[in-house]
Amino acid sequence: RLHGLVHVRAVLEDDGSLREHPKSKRSRRAVPIPPHLIERVRELAAVAGPGPVFRRPDGARLDYDMFRTVWDHAVADARTCAHGAGCRDTSHHLPDYTPHTMRHTYASWLVQAGVDLYEVQRLLGHESYLTTQRYAHLKPDAHDLVRGVLRNLRARSAHGAPNTGPGERSQDAT
Which residues pair with 8 in a beta bridge? Predict the structure, then answer.
């Protein structure tokens, strides 16, 4: 709460039960929140006291139905057209976002901004790197290293330098 992190420790299931591990044992984690939200979360934490920050209006633990009600209302409010509530032009409205869609959006934004896939894996709590690897194609410089190596090999070849494989040294390089 004091360091701009949300600590993911458990998940509330659809049936109201609390699962100790959000997705897997690895997924207990701390996730940074944007600086513009830190003060608001601190305010919520001060009101909530010890335990979960996000709760029902009566202070009770937030259940799944209440979470989805709050979530769906927030998305509906965000989808309201800036031209007024009566606007029927759907191009002025946001699509219907689910928490799962937003999780993928978060991962995509991080990868596109150059965050290492292992860091994204840690933040999302993926058990396997292969799950996170699905986002690799979004990294804008994903193949820059390979392109650079190929460019250097071609340049060396054009100047008469011997082409050596990875880990090999040409005799004139000793």
Answer: 29
